[in-house]
Design goal:
This protein is of the alpha+beta class. Among the domains are: 76-117, no CATH class; 123-242, Tetrahydropterin Synthase, Chain A; 248-329, no CATH class. The chain is built from twelve helices and 13 strands. The strands form five sheets. Strands 6, 9, 10 and 11 form a four-stranded antiparallel β-sheet that branches. The chain has a three-stranded antiparallel β-sheet with strand order 3-2-5. The chain starts with 25 loop residues before the first helix and ends with a helix. HflC and HflK could encode or regulate a protease.
């Protein structure tokens, strides 16, 4: 007879009902727990036998739901740090570590949290003006107007670029890094401008002013441990106030004209002075050369005269005749005059070759050979007597000169 037939013992072979020595039924345990919880929270006593035996077990569902919730809560602890960023992990608000780029996990909130900081981004602030993309574009006089050392107002516009060098200090040490940096920049800028003159700020001192401002900003931010690195400071504009710009422009033009004239004068001076110095040096060198030449000639003449005098002392007649012949040779070598001494005669014939020879063309050099080219036509017979004509006075003068020569001999 089966257990569920009429007249059977009604004992379930799987649940163990009716067996007092067997393990308790799971449904009975769940119903008992439900009754106890109902009593604990003020629920009335309900008949345990009236419950549906096929209801799902509440304890198992609660465990499954708790496991799923813990799993989902653990998944929220995964995070990704992009390239160029740093992750700053905190546990209950206290710093724990810095993570680099990649996939990481931390205890989910509210136990641990992570702040992602871009350490490669170029950030910037504007002092004295706002760019066109901002809500208030244009000049900000409250920030731009500054007093110089010589008690003049200047309108200065500055742009500062920076990036994060330490993510931990950037998050924990300063509440508002951008506002703090802007206040520090204004303070450093006013200090540097206030110690400089207006002309220095507007003209040649711009690069030096930018360097000083950048150094002072970095020193102050480092003293705050802000984790900020100043990359560049750009002086966008520096000019006098708008009310006096026209007068200041005229002054600048006058200064530029003055500088232009000075440059032109210096250029002219640089052109003339070297030439004058060169000419003077050339004159000095020529004078020194002439001096050396005269001295050398004088010394040579004196030396020659001393040697000649020594020879003259030994043979006066021979030396005197030799000197005379040399002198006459030197004189007559430069002329066209030829003296012909006829043997046994008393007179010396004078031949004026310059009159006898045909005239040379103008293009022919004076010292060229007067011999006629064989290809050229012969001179006309009419020209020969004119060239060979002898002046009567010239013959007399030559005759007397020949007599003088013969008398000296």
């Amino acid at each position: 007879m089966s257990w569920n037939e009429p007249g059977g013992d009604k004992k379930d072979p799987w649940s163990g009902r009716g067996d007092k020595n067997g393990p308790p039924d799971l449904d009975e345990a769940l119903r008992s727990l439900q009754e106890k919880l109902g009593k604990l929270f003020g629920g009335g006593e309900g008949g345990g036998n009236s419950s549906n035996d096929s209801s799902p077990p509440m304890k198992g569902l609660t465990a499954i739901a708790a496991g799923v919730a813990v799993f989902l809560w653990g998944i929220t602890g995964f995070y990704v740090v992009d390239e160029g960023n740093h992750g700053v992990e905190t546990r209950f608000g206290k710093y724990t570590t810095i993570t680099q780029s990649g996939l990481h996990w931390h205890l989910p909130a509210p136990i641990e949290q992570v702040n992602i900081v871009n350490v490669k981004q170029q950030r910037f602030i504007e002092v004295g003006y706002r760019s066109a993309g901002s809500e208030q574009s244009g000049s900000v006089l409250k920030e731009a107007l500054m007093l110089t050392k010589d008690e003049n107002y200047v309108d200065v516009r500055l742009a500062v670029q920076y990036q994060v060098k330490d993510a931990k200090d950037f998050i924990f040490n300063i509440v508002n890094p951008a506002a703090t940096l802007k206040q520090v920049t204004e303070s450093a800028q006013r200090g540097v401008i206030g110690s400089s003159t207006m002309d220095f700020v507007l003209t040649e001192g711009r690069s030096e002013i930018v360097t000083q401002i950048k150094k002072e900003i970095q020193d102050v931010m480092d003293s705050y441990h802000s984790g900020i690195q100043i990359t560049s400071v750009n002086l966008q504009d520096a000019q006098p106030p708008e009310q006096v710009q026209n007068a200041f422009a005229d002054a600048i033009k006058a200064r530029e004209d003055e500088q232009r004239l000075i440059n032109e004068a210096e250029a002219y001076s640089n052109d003339v002075v070297p030439k004058a110095r060169g000419a003077a040096a050339r004159k000095m060198q020529e004078a020194e050369g002439y001096k050396e030449q005269v001295i050398a000639q004088a010394e040579g003449e004196s030396s020659r005269f001393a040697k000649l005098y020594a020879e003259y002392s030994k043979a006066p007649d021979v030396t005197r005749k030799r000197l005379y012949i040399d002198a006459m040779e030197a004189v007559f070598s430069e002329t066209n005059t030829v003296m012909v001494d006829v043997k046994g005669g008393n007179n010396m014939m004078y031949l004026p070759l310059d009159k006898m020879l045909p005239h040379k063309p103008a293009s022919q050099p004076a010292n060229s050979n007067p011999v006629q080219n064989s290809n050229e036509p012969a001179a006309t017979p009419a020209a020969a007597p004119a060239s060979a004509a002898v002046d009567e006075h010239s013959v007399d003068r030559a005759t007397s000169r020949g007599r003088d020569v013969r008398g000296r001999q």
